[in-house]
Amino acid sequence: MCTPQCVCEKLGGLAFEEAIKAGKYVRHYTKNLQKLKDKLKDLGDCMEIITTDVSLANVRGDEIVVNVSRWQIDAKKLKADIEQLIGESTIKASISCIACSCPNIMWRYKFSKQSEENIADAVELIGKYNNFNRQISHPRSHYAENLQKLKDKLRDLGDCRETITRKVSEANGRGDEVEVNVLHWQTDADSLLDDIEKLIGESTTKADICSTECPFPDITWQYKFSKQAEEKIADAGGLILKYNNFNQISHPRPRPPELESLSDKNYVNFDSRASIFKDIMDALKDSNVNMIGVFGLGGVGKTTLVKEVGEQMRKDGTFKQVAMAVVSKDLNVKEVQSRLADSLNFEFKAKADDQERRATELWNKFTNGDKYLIILDDIWEEVKMEAIGIPCTIEKKGCKVVLTSRNEDLLSTVMEVDRNFSIAILSSAEAWTLFMKKVGNSIQSQLEIKSLAYEVCKRCKGLPVAINALGEALKGKQEHAWKTALNKLDKYMLTKIVGINPSVLASLRVSYDMLHPVDAKSCFLLCCLFGEDDEIPLDELTRFWFAGSFLAQKPCTLEEARNEVHTVVDALKSASLLLNGNDENVVEIHDVIRDVGISIAREEEAFLVDHGAFEWPQNPPNGPSYSAISLIFKNVNGHPEGLVYPKLHTLTVVNSELSDLEFPDNFFNGMMQLTVLTISGIRMRRLPSSLAKLKNLRMLYLNECELDDIAILKDLKSNLEVLSLSDSCIEALPPEIRQLTSLQVLDLRDCDKLTVIPRGVTSNLTSLEELYFPENFDKWCATTDEQQGTSSRENLSLEELRRPLSTGKLTTLHIYIPDVMLLPKEDLIFANLKGFKISVGSKIKTSEEISGRCMLKLEGVALRNEFIPLVDKAEGVVLSEIESLKKVFHDRGVGNRFLDLKYLKVKSCVEDLKYLIGESKSSVQSHELHRVQSFNNLTVLIIKNCKSKYLFSPTTAKGLVHLEYLEVRSCINMEGIVAFEGQNDKDEFTSEVKFSKLEQLKLEDLPNLLSFYAQNVKTGTTMGSSSVCAQPLFSEKVIFPVLESLTIEGLDNIITIWDKQSIAVLEEQGSFCHLTDLEVRRCNKLMHVFLSNMHQLLKNLMNLEVQECKIMKGIAEFEEEIDEDGLKNEVCRFSKLRTLILLSL
């Protein structure tokens, strides 16, 4: 036994209280040892059961619950610790003290303390074991396998989505309309791909090791993941199956009504031509007539008449489409094919030079079962219809042809038309009426002038082209001017031009003589250098005007020249010497007027115009040397040498078919006065060395050419101001271009193969006013180090534009920026631009039909401040997937903004705005003074996939006085196109909104739309909440006086289109009275399309299509109405209805 002295010595190192505890541990050593052995046995029993259950689970293939796996690890470690401690007790506890025979008290103290801790741990583990409730495992989740399958499906579905996106983009580029099921598939695929990517992303974190203490993954989460993965895999499989079953991605859009019209707004319906007009229409309706001819003098009005016939027969449904092409003297089959295709909105699959395949495509188009009218205007020789692709035999009754010519025999004998119609000159009375319409009725009271006017009108011989030109020329003139005109008419009547009536020649010559200022005459003669029936771009006229020898005084800048050109062109149009083109940026010239102009230019200015040339011309032996030559070769041959034109200032050479021609080095030696040179359609390996000697050359066009080496252009650095390589095949711009420091225009549009534009080109060309990059050029050098990985190090960077933009020298810029990150960090100053076509993130597509001098497209970018001035100035804007839309339309107000905007498309901008466009009246009252209504020139508005609740406030809607086309699609939050939620302005809430020029309206996939003009009227419910009252789609608060086409699709909240109580008001307003086409699809709450009392309102309806309206009971809702005779009236008459399509009802 230990002596007291021994015990005190062994425990003496402890504090008093700790020593007391140690004494207890020593005293209870044996008891603690037994407890430890008991807990070891209990823990072992639990472990044995758990091990057995885990083994059985593994045999079943189940996954072990993660808490069980952790428990096993903890239990195994604790069991080993307890066994080791008990083993030590058999040795160390029996060792005696050195001083006496007592046990090792210090070790027993430590053992008892450690055993109590192990006993507590064992109790805790046994408690956890009891809480397992036998839930040891669950069926295996196949996590890894499902994860890999999910990744595979993500890849497969992504490939399908990429293919669909590419095909949809191609369809949009063609202007086709994408199939609805394809659009729905895209939406579903995008959503599913996002879900799968998120799920896979979570797998990299949640399924990993849970903690440093536990090396096992979270099996419970893996099980849940596998269930979700299996669902997503099945969904992806379903979408891939749908993808494989797509028969087509898109179909051609119907031609817009505004492009269908052939009618001339100045058309006058003369009594003498009424019978001819009717006879032509009757002949075209005759099943035995396939081809008719219309002949008469040049300028008698043949073209105007047949255009009006075509327009009337298209409108009355006789023909589905009317195609027109001007043939002219030099028949070019490929050009005629292209013009017909353009007028049909038809795109060839064959290449432009494959005339036979294009003919086959047109033939198939014209024999597809629909009815087509084809007008070939101004033919001068036999036209082989089969070569063009026009079927006009008795067997092909769906296609009929109208030919116009000055030659009756050509039509009847050569072309063998079924019927021939002569267009005679106007009667004296009709000629006088037309003449008075031009000069004004004020001369009726001026007897002397009136008598002179009679004589002048008589000299016009009843020819409208002469009457219009002379009438405009003499409008407002004094008596002496009338006398001078009459004298000149008699003089010029002696002049003859083959195919032109002397009266026409004399009249047009007098009109030319009376032009003021002199620059108007120069501009008119310049227009005669362009091809017959060509559209003449005003920008091109401006460049000729600026660089050529056509002006009395040269303008200082291109912008000045452009303003002068527009002024003079307006004067020429007023004088009826020029015509409006298809858009405001081009003009046309009547072929008769052009012929007279060429005659004048040849006589007065020594111009030569040969647009069917076979050889290079020589100077006339007895006449003045040519000052301007315009040649169009069908296929240029030979190597011209020794041509001497010492006074030549303008030379244009166009080759209709691209061919090789090596100009001899001395070609330009005899043309040292050249200031304007244009060459098109020639393949040249190098430019002739004599080009470098043209020190007066100020404008050089090398368009539609194949070019290798153009470095010689550096020698033109002293005077060259305009350089265009448009549509030419060139891969690299030579560095020498930067030496052209006088250059004011550089045009590289449509140089699709151009990939290298060296650094310093724009920064060195300090005189540049207009810069046009290719629309496909995207090889920009980075402006920061971060961008170097995705850019070309050799090319110029956007930073080089900073100086010309900031100084205001550069006024026109066409550019495509594929990535906004390529822009410098510091904003560029675009505010000084007066003309631009800028696209960022995505190119402007032809299907977007944007036209004008200022065009902007932003896609997938944050809206930087530098773009805001462009939005304000633009005539056409496309905003797609951009951020900060509120900054555009709201933050800066809309007063006095968007005044030039004509085309606006907003797509996939998810910013949540109450009103997408404009402001309510109350928000702009403080700015009312001197405020111009914004958007007042907007003609086309397209909204897709936006989150706004409303599109316009009434105030904004009232300002849309020129809106012609409105499309709103796939806006799931939109409740009203027009709406007002204000409380204080009753006028705003109750006033009418009139869309006075809206012709086409499309409302598609707007599931929450309540009404076009939504009223915030609510009803109470039993639970104390409220719901919005059902409203008709259209009420008397919105007026559509000229609407022709209406499409409604996917409007799930609409139960009625029109309100029965409003029909009388709508009739009085004239709303919907011009509606000809109505399409209704997928309106799942709509029971009827029409009300029984509205057939008078829709009296002009011609085409009706109703599809997939699930609960529709009938097209018209009939109620018992009593007519004047007291009889029930249950008839809804649509007397002009031609097409009725009812599907899936």
From TrEMBL:
Q: Where is the signal peptide?
A: none
Gene Ontology biological-process annotations: defense response
What highest taxon heads this organism's lineage? Answer: Eukaryota
Residue ranges annotated for the Disease resistance protein At4g27190-like leucine-rich repeats domain, each copy included: 922-1016, 1068-1144
Any GO MF annotation of the entry: ATP binding
Tell whether Repeat is among the UniProt keywords: yes
Keyword DNA-binding listed? The answer is no
Q: Which UniProt keywords apply?
A: ATP-binding, Leucine-rich repeat, Nucleotide-binding, Plant defense, Repeat
* Annotated family: Belongs to the disease resistance NB-LRR family.
Q: What is the protein name given in its UniProt record?
A: Uncharacterized protein
Checking SUPFAM superfamilies in the record gives: L domain-like, P-loop containing nucleoside triphosphate hydrolases
Q: Where is the NB-ARC domain?
A: 279-441
Enumerate the Pfam families for this protein.
LRR_RPS2 (PF23247), NB-ARC (PF00931)
Q: Entry's Gene3D superfamilies?
A: Helical domain of apoptotic protease-activating factors, P-loop containing nucleotide triphosphate hydrolases, Ribonuclease Inhibitor, Winged helix-like DNA-binding domain superfamily/Winged helix DNA-binding domain
